[in-house]
Write a structure and sequence with these properties.
Blueprint (H helix, E strand, L loop, with lengths): L4 E5 L5 E5 L3 E5 L6 E4 L4 E4 L9 E6 L7 E5 L4 H13 L3 E2 L1
Parallel strand pairs: 5-8
Antiparallel strand pairs: 1-2, 2-3, 3-4, 5-6, 6-7
Length: 95
């Protein structure tokens, strides 16, 4: 993968997600940036959209003791779907 894919997410559009082909970076989810190499990253989409049309994505990585839940506003879904598709193309596992 030659280009970095970026998406805005979070309940207030305050989380920047970036995928460069090797790792997922989430900036704004916590006070410090999160860096997850894709070798052990797992991903899941909530089956049903939220009542407002938003979507929830879950990320699971051994470095965190629980899954990371990221709500994406309806207007941010196309960018986040592009990022998720790139993660799946890079063989990120689903749970």
């Amino acid at each position: 993968m030659s280009e970095t894919i970026e998406a805005t997410t979070g309940p207030d559009g305050n989380v920047d997600a970036k995928f460069d082909g090797e790792a997922l970076d989430l900036n704004g989810y916590t006070a410090s940036p999160l860096h997850f190499p894709i070798a052990k990253l797992q991903l899941k989409r909530k089956k049903k959209p939220e009542k407002d049309g938003g979507q929830v994505y879950y990320f699971l990585h051994p470095s965190w003791s629980s899954r990371i839940e990221v709500y994406t506003r309806p207007e941010d879904i196309p960018g986040m779907e592009k990022l998720v598709d790139a993660l799946l193309a890079a063989d990120v596992k689903t749970f």
